[in-house]
Fold each of these.
Amino acid sequence: MNGLRATGSYSTYSTVILLLVFLQVPLFAQYKNSLEFSPTYSIKMFTADDQLSGTAFGWEMIYAVINDEKPKDWQRMLRVQSIDLIINVQNMRQVNVLTAADEVHPLSLDAFALMAGLNIRLTRLGNSELLFSPAFGVGYLSQTYFTNKNPLVGGHMNFASRAALKLAIPITESISINPGLQVLHYSNAAYRVPNRGLNGLFFNLGLLHQLKPFSNRPDTALRIKKPYPKHSFEFGVAAGRRGIYQSKLGLHRAALYGGYNYRLNQVLAWSTGLDAVYQPTVFDPDDFRRTYQSKASNYEHWRLGAAVGPDIWMGNLALSVKYGYYLHFNSYHNINTYWTAGFKYTVLPWLALQAKVFVHQSEADFVGFGLLLNASKGKGL
């Protein structure tokens, strides 16, 4: 109880501080950015396998960096209105989970997330704008399986993602209200198991204050200036680990990738390739608890799949999503398909850093971190 009181006090104090900062934004009027404060209230909490009851509530603060005078080519193409830094805090102490054994278990947790995202204009509705705001970052959940037997969460540190749809309604030249809906997701990508993930659909009502008023933003017309390679080949290596169920130990993974990319324009590329994953520990029915790896359980060390999907480039950073079919996988659960998602960041014309999650249906296997070698002849972006 003391821990909950401390967490609640911290949340209250931080809310007051952020509200005071928001009210003092005219002090920073020399910057052409904005601040948005948005209370949130859950419409539905859910997971893939369990039923949740109860409600969550909280807030988020968004600091938006607006580059309207000299936007990048990819910002024009995607109609990016701002690049956002987001603090999201949710009180989930009233949320309960109904397990498969019909047991009711209180989550009793608070969720904190720090994310970076984009604010993308979908269309104009009179003087208002309909915006899509995806974001990704890190999250902290106050309770886990190892603290209160939480059946959904295996570790405090998690990946956090958010997708929001909101309507920006101007009230004055510098203030607007932004009602909308957002989906929040927390997961550690099976680094610690259990890892069923925690999701919520929230209503939010934002109040946005532009730190430097402006009314005539330039059109987001397409103006491509920089060259990019049309054809390229990638060769990658990554490593990660998957947790053992109800244990702080883990099982290691290594992943190899070879693929071909066809660049359609400054933002979009089409990519296809082979994924080979090596796991030192194979599934052994006689050692079930230590070697069982849920939908990733493999009787052999290797599995091989072919995947295809888009890359969305934002300067030197790309979001990559692929759906694949296994050419070889001696699966305990007869799994035939998989998908991957991740980011890659070009540091040199021939070298990129990558983070990539492997998923079976809706269940994460592991996240691999590593390098990608690019065999294209272009100079990069």
Amino acid sequence: MLECRMCGACCIALSISTTIPGTDSGKPAGVRCIHLDNDNRCGIYESRPPVCREFTRTVDLCGNNFEDTLKNLYALELATK
């Protein structure tokens, strides 16, 4: 497993179908999580929901930078829609 760069791309690109704290539902793909701050850091990282904690980072998904990660995660979201 790849160590998280904490870039926030997964908090934007991916849909979340489970409840996120502070909301009645999850979030659609392409929408920033309400807990993502201006520096793309998770404001509830230590208490984030299981779906976020269980996300497996890989070199193939995360690439070399935020732009790679966002592009790859959008492609994953489309492929699994």
Amino acid sequence: VAPRATGGATGGASGAANPFLVKQGLAAAVGVVAMLAAMHVDYRTWKRPLLVYGGLAAVVALLAAVLLVGPTLNGTRRWFVLGPLSVQPSELAKLALVPFVAYQLEKKEERVNRPELLLPVGLATALVAGLVVLGPDMGTAALLVAAVALMLFLAGLSWRSVLVGAGFLVPLGALVLLSAPYRRQRLLAFLDPEADPLGAGYQVLQSLIAVGSGGVFGVGLGNSGQKLFFLPYPHSDFIYAIVAEELGMIGALAVLALFAVLLWRGVAAAVRAPDAFGRHLGLGLTGILVLQALINVSVAVSLLPTKGIPLPFLSYGGSSLVVSMAACGVLLNLSEHAS
């Protein structure tokens, strides 16, 4: 959830000197409130059936509603716009799907390779991810599927089940990837960005220029040249490239180190959880935050095709920031109960 800027960079209708800074600042304030609230709510509250199934049903309803009545922004239907506020249901899906899977794993932990667990988890994930893909937002859908797969694998999913799942998901993913012309262009640009440097390969090349321009120590905070109308979406999808340009290799590695600390502390809290639900919930929330960061960074340095996935905590985007901070609040509460 975040306030929506209505003016340009110099104020416009909103009258603000910098509406982007104002919007992100207000989102950060909402995120702090969400994190503190989640931190003081016993994590076991999230395994109540009413919240588990009600939260999943609410997210499915929101995802369907945004496709039907949501405004079209940049050719997509991903946001509800409520005056100065905008909400992205696909971000809320993370806080609904992970507890649902954790709940199912706790109840059926000894049957992780059997249909009574895999069927409800698979159907719920397919429903949520399918609605997100229709947004269209293949990146977030892939992130949700990867996070659920990671939770199942860590819970003891057999390699046979992994291979069967991969045999189904890989062709399906390829079909979705190749079904849209712009996705095919992104894939071709990833394979050979210099083949179309002013078209499909432009983003990738400009991102690499930004990363390379930073050197070891960077050009200085706020001194990026690439963000001045060269690199598209430098404030959101490619914020890591700007960090590398302005703060250099040292700053870029520092960001990775911070996510490594998040991984370390999240996993530590999860493995010391007093029950199975806490363990799976902690691993799921930690996994989805770290996986999202890895995907964003990999896109910025051209290790993956371009995807519209924000870098948690750093990218511009209120819904992502609030959801990420709320997830951290749950992890903090889990850490308090860890043995």
